[in-house]
Design brief:
With 301 residues, this protein is an alpha/beta fold. It is built from twelve helices and eight strands. Helix 5 crosses helix 8.
Length: 301
């Protein structure tokens, strides 16, 4: 039986209005440093469910659904909003100012790392430190395609053009927004297959079935420009902890280690036998690292 948490440690879902759109976020804890957690592509604040109550013992912790994901609004791309890292960075900055009302430590996973860095570049006075978990390397970015194989260079733009045709794109999305497909993708991303539970599949799948989710997915698959991590890292004025699941098949750790050469990165921690989402696959290790980093204690790895 799971332990009964104090009421202040139980994550509470709240809603915030940002530029006329409803944004869902979760919060827990009533004292200490403020930590804001930012999910990756196709996920939501629920991907931090194993971290929120633990971090809340000593910190005020927030996890938000980026606009277009989770249970936040999903306005039609290009009409009311553009789904870019600049947009999400602005969302995080305004969330910190309006909801948190204090300086924060940002922690992100995958594309959430790019969002975190973009926010810190936009408002350096708000961000005291940062933790990046398996940062998206954006290997399909238009300026990085010479680094991938020739067939991937040909296939990526072709796929983007095909998916931009709405009937084909929506058909493709309907095929992947199925439990068996989501489970298969998660089993690729996670090294520990036991962590791919029915609960996790449902947490990913349920928001994907809400209105507008398909169009947001297709808009992001066509997004091959914007900032790269190696462009944002030199602009950071806060210290960075970089955590990397060493068994990540999507963001190779060998390429990730190159990011540790930037002066902002104070620690690069490799987690053996862990895949793309360490906060969910190895929460005990990640929680300890984040707690120590937030409190400015030795990392201990």
């Amino acid at each position: 039986m799971a332990p009964v948490l104090e009421s202040s440690l139980q994550p509470q879902s709240q809603f915030w209005t940002w530029r006329g759109h409803t944004i869902r976020y979760q919060c827990a804890g009533d004292h200490g440093i403020a930590i804001v957690l930012i999910h990756g592509f196709g996920a939501s604040s629920d991907h931090w469910r194993k971290n929120l109550p633990v971090l809340a013992v000593n910190h005020r912790v927030y996890a938000l659904d980026l606009i277009g994901f989770g249970y936040s609004d999903k306005p039609n791309p290009g009409t009311k909003i553009d789904y870019t890292f600049e947009t999400w960075g602005e969302q995080v900055v305004e969330f910190c100012r309006e909801v948190v009302g204090d300086q924060v430590m940002l922690a992100g996973n995958s594309i959430g790392c790019i969002v975190a860095m973009q926010a810190a570049v936009m408002a350096p006075e708000l961000v005291t430190r940062m933790a990046l978990l398996n940062c998206s390397l954006r290997l399909l970015h238009e300026r990085k395609r010479q680094e991938i194989s020739w067939h991937e260079r040909l296939a990526a733009p072709l796929m983007q053009r095909l998916l931009s045709y709405r009937p084909i794109g929506r058909l493709f999305f309907s095929q992947i927004a199925q439990p068996r497909v989501v489970r298969r993708l998660l089993c690729q991303a996670y090294c520990n297959q036991d962590a791919v539970t029915s609960e996790l599949v449902n947490l990913i799948l349920a928001p994907a079935r809400t209105p507008g989710a398909a169009d947001v997915f297709l808009a992001f698959t066509a997004y091959s420009h914007g900032p790269l991590p190696e462009e944002l890292l030199p602009q950071l004025s806060c210290p960075v902890l970089m955590i990397w699941g060493a068994a990540d098949p999507w963001e190779p750790i060998a390429k990730g280690r190159a990011l540790a050469e930037f002066s902002a990165v104070q620690h690069f921690i490799a987690l053996k036998g862990v895949g793309h989402c360490p906060q969910d696959e190895a929460p005990d290790q990640v929680n300890t690292l984040l707690q120590n980093w937030a409190a400015e204690r030795p990392i201990g790895y």
